[in-house]
Specification:
Number of strands of chain A: 19
Order of helices and strands of chain A: EEEHEHEHEHEHEHEHEHEEEEEEEHEE
Oligomer: homodimer
Largest interface: A-B, 72 and 72 residues
Radius of gyration of chain A: 22 Å
Helix content of chain A: 25-40%
Chain lengths: ~375, ~375
C-alpha cells in the first residue's frame, strides 16, 4: 500500500488491510468505530447549525487530512483549526481551503511559511505580541498577500493571549494598520474550563469568558474595528459559547472521538456527557497471563498518552487497566476471564496526544476494516 | 535529504540540517549532546567489562539503528535487546546481528516473523507460557531454523514471567525438548526496582531477585539444563546484577540519555546518580510571554511523555516547567528573563516514550548539528 509518497507493509508499518476482521488487526492499533464517529460528527454539525454559529473543527485532535475533509464535507465545518504551521501545510496540501492556526507563530522561518500558505488557502493566525505583528506584516508583504489575524485574549486559561479590553484593542489597531495584515477578530478559547467535571463551574467559567469577550468586542466596535470571527469553545463547553450571542465560531475537536477524561465531564443533570460516543479505541492483545487475577496487554506508554489518566476497558466492567509501563499494560482480571491473544478495546485517557503517537487510524464498521487513514500531520510538532 | 527510503524537507519533517547552529534548529526537536552521549556509552562499557559481564544494550530506549550499531561498535555491546518484533526487524535490516526480544511474542503472525528473523540474525525471545512454546516450535520448524528461548521469571516486578523455581524448570524442559527451539537461559528483569530513589531499597530488591535467579539456575543445572544467558538489569540497578556472580548479561538502556526521573535515583552515598549525564534534550522555543512571571514554550504533551513527571529546564535554576498542555508548556519565569523566540533545553521526564514520539535525533557537538539519526523503529509498536 502507498500513502503520503511511501509504501507500507501490513503488520510492519501498517496495522491492517481493508477487509480484515478486527481479530486480524496487528496490535496495538488505533481504531475508529466509523458509525459512532459519523454520529458524533453529525451531532456537532446539528448543534452548531441550531445555535446559528459556524463550526471550525479542530484538527489538532486527529491530524488527519481524511478526517478534516470529512468534517468539512459532511460535518458542517467551515474550515479547520490547527496548532502548528506544519499541520496547516499538511492539511492545505490535502485540499483544505480555510485554516486557522489557533496559536502564536513567532519563529521567523515559520512566519515565512505561514505567509506563503496564504497564497494557497485562507490562512488565519493568532497574535498576542506587538513585535510579532511587525514580523507577520513583513512576511505577508514579501509574498504580496494578506494574512488574517485574530487577537488572542486570555479569558481565564492563563496561557497565551493578551488581557481582554484595552490591551486587545491596542494590538488590534496595530494589526489593522499593518501592511499585509487584516484584523479579523478575536481568539478567546477557555481551555482550562473544558475538562472541569462540574457543570455549574464550567458554566460560570464560560460566563466570565463571555463577559470579557463582549466587553472587548464593544470596545473594538467603538474604535471602528469589527470582529468577523469571535472564536473559541471546546467539546466540554461549546453549548455555552454557541448560545452566548457573542462567539460565532466553535473550535471543538475531541467530540469526534471522546476519551476517558471527557467522559468524566458532567452535563446539567449531573450525568456524564452522552451526546458524543466513544469512537476511538486502542486495540490491544493479551500477551502474558501468568497470574490468576491479572493479565498483561501489549499497549503501554508507547501506545498512548496517560497525562489525563489511564485508559478504560471498553464494554467489560470486570476488567480494569491498572498500570502502565513502556510496552505493557496490566489488566486486573479478578474473574480470570482473559486468555493469551484475546483482544480488548481501550478508551484512551486523552485522545489528542494519543493520536499523535500513531501513523494510522484503522476505520472499522460491522467488525471489519473499512478504511486506513494516515495520521497526516503526526509528529509534525514544528 | 533521504533516509529510510523517504525524502525529507528541513523544517517540515526534519528539524535541522548538518552544520546548523543550535539556534537554527526548528523546535520542538529532540537533541543529543554527542559528547555526553559518548561518555555515557563508554562508562557503561567500562563498567560491564570491569564486572566481567556482557552488555546487551536495550534499544527500546532509542529505537535507532545508528545508536544500536554505535553501542555494538564502540560501547562494548554484544548485541541488543528490543521489545517488539517490528523493532527487531528494523534493527536487523540495519545490520544488527544479535537481537533479544526481551518480551513475549504470542501473536501467531508475529511468531512467523520472529522465526523468519532467525534466518538473518541470532534471534532470542522470552517465554512464559507452555502453549507459546508449541507455537514457537512450529514456526521455527517451518523455517528450518533454531529459535533461542529464555524462560522469563518474575523476580518481583509482578508483570510477565513464570514463578522462579519449579515452574521455570518445567517450562525450560519443554523448550529444551521442542523441535526448532533452544533453551538459552533466563530472563530476570526487576523492572519495578529501577526507579526506586533509595539505594538500600533498590539493593534489597535486587538481592531478592538474585536469590530467586540463583535458586532457579541451580535447579536447572540439576536437570542438566545450562543457562548460557542470565539476563536482566537496568540503569538503576546494573551494578548489583553485574556483581552478583549470577547474571551474565546486562540489559541497560536509559544510561545513554538519562532523564529527569532517573536523575532522582540516589547512589550509595545518598547522592543523585552522577555516573551518567543528561545527554537527551527537548529543544523548545518561547512563543508567548504576555505575563511578567511566566512564558509559554512550544513543547507540550505531543513533544514528550509526562508519565514520570514534567521535564526540567537544563542549566537554569531560575526557570521551572510547571504545566503541560497539548502543544504548550508553561515556564515559571519569576525574574522575567525569557524573551519570545528564546530557546531552552528540557530534560524529558522519561526518555523512552519521549523518543517514541519523534522521527529524528539531532546530534549536536560544539553547538552545531553534527548528525541526524532517524528513529528507525519509531511507532513500530507491533
Amino acid at each position: 500500500m502507498v500513502a503520503n509518497g511511501r509504501s507500507f507493509q501490513v503488520g510492519f508499518d501498517i496495522p491492517a488491510k481493508i477487509g480484515d476482521r478486527i481479530d486480524d488487526i496487528h496490535t496495538p492499533a488505533l481504531l475508529i468505530d466509523l458509525d459512532a464517529f459519523e454520529r458524533n460528527v453529525s451531532r456537532m454539525a446539528d448543534s452548531a447549525k441550531a445555535m446559528g454559529v459556524r463550526l471550525r473543527a479542530h484538527a489538532k485532535t486527529h491530524k488527519s487530512a481524511d478526517i478534516a475533509l470529512y468534517q468539512i464535507k459532511h460535518g458542517g465545518a467551515c474550515g479547520v483549526c490547527c496548532q502548528k504551521v506544519s499541520e496547516a501545510e499538511a492539511l492545505v496540501n490535502a485540499g483544505v481551503k480555510d485554516v486557522l492556526v489557533s496559536n502564536q507563530v513567532t519563529d521567523l522561518k515559520k512566519i515565512e511559511r505561514l505567509a506563503q500558505l496564504t497564497t494557497r488557502a485562507r490562512t488565519i493566525v493568532c497574535v498576542d505580541d506587538a513585535d510579532n505583528v511587525d514580523h507577520l506584516s513583513a512576511s505577508a508583504q514579501r509574498f504580496g498577500t494578506v494574512l488574517e489575524c485574530l487577537v488572542e485574549i486570555d479569558v481565564g486559561a492563563g496561557r497565551c493571549g493578551v488581557e481582554p479590553g484595552r490591551a486587545a484593542v491596542a494590538l488590534a489597531k496595530k494589526i489593522a494598520g499593518a501592511e499585509g495584515l487584516k484584523f479579523s477578530g478575536l481568539q478567546a478559547y477557555q481551555g482550562a474550563a473544558q475538562h472541569i467535571a462540574d457543570y455549574g463551574q464550567r458554566k460560570a467559567n464560560i460566563a466570565a469568558a463571555v463577559e470579557m469577550v463582549q466587553a472587548t468586542v464593544t470596545l473594538l466596535q467603538q474604535q471602528g474595528l469589527q470582529c468577523e470571527i469571535v472564536g473559541g469553545a471546546g467539546t466540554g463547553s461549546y453549548y455555552f459559547e454557541g448560545a452566548s450571542g457573542v462567539y460565532n465560531e466553535l473550535q471543538c475537536g475531541s467530540y469526534i472521538f471522546m476519551d476517558a477524561d471527557y467522559k468524566r465531564v458532567k452535563d446539567k443533570n449531573g450525568e456524564f456527557i452522552h451526546e458524543f460516543e466513544n469512537s476511538l479505541f486502542i486495540l490491544t492483545s493479551i500477551m502474558s497471563h501468568t497470574k490468576s487475577d491479572k493479565a498483561i496487554c501489549d499497549a503501554g506508554l508507547k501506545a498512548q498518552s496517560v497525562d489525563s489518566g489511564l485508559p478504560t476497558v471498553f464494554g467489560n466492567a470486570d476488567l480494569t487497566y491498572v498500570k502502565c509501563s513502556d510496552e505493557h499494560g496490566v489488566i486486573a482480571d479478578p474473574k480470570g476471564i482473559l486468555k493469551i491473544n484475546d483482544k480488548l478495546k481501550l478508551v484512551p485517557g486523552h485522545c489528542d496526544p494519543t493520536c499523535n503517537i500513531y501513523d494510522w487510524f484503522v476505520g472499522v464498521r460491522n467488525e471489519k476494516v473499512e478504511c486506513l487513514w494516515p495520521i497526516t500531520a503526526r509528529g509534525l510538532a514544528l
